[in-house]
Design a protein that fits this description.
This protein has helices spanning about 1-10, 20-40; strands at about 80-85, 90-95. By secondary structure, it is an alpha+beta fold. The chain starts with a helix and ends in a 5-residue tail after the last strand.
Length: about 100
């Protein structure tokens, strides 16, 4: 969900948290709340084998704008989405849209 939140506000996952300006931190907090709310409303993300307590799949993965889209075109600028590994986890971002 952080990939989606960072994309939403145009911040690169390569930036250090200590590098963020106060207004970016505020925007990120709001974006995280917005993305999590949408994910909860969609029942979460069923990427591999996630199901809820009733055995139902989530649907938020159908709304991903950046996550899991390596090599695809960015929805905003049509540049290519890049994948990097950070602390053993994948991060996806658009080099043109996210600074």
């Amino acid at each position: 969900y952080i990939n989606e939140s960072l994309f939403d506000i145009g911040v690169s996952p390569l930036r250090s948290a200590s590098d963020l300006k106060d207004n970016e931190i505020k925007k990120l907090g709001l974006a995280i709340k917005k993305i999590l709310k949408k994910a909860i409303e969609s029942g979460g993300s069923s990427i591999n084998d996630y199901v809820d307590s009733e055995g139902k799949n989530g649907h938020f993965q159908n709304s991903f704008k950046i996550y899991g889209r390596e090599g695809e075109k960015c929805l905003l600028c049509k540049g290519l989405i890049t994948r990097i590994i950070q602390n053993g986890r994948s991060s996806f971002f658009c080099k043109k849209c996210q600074k």
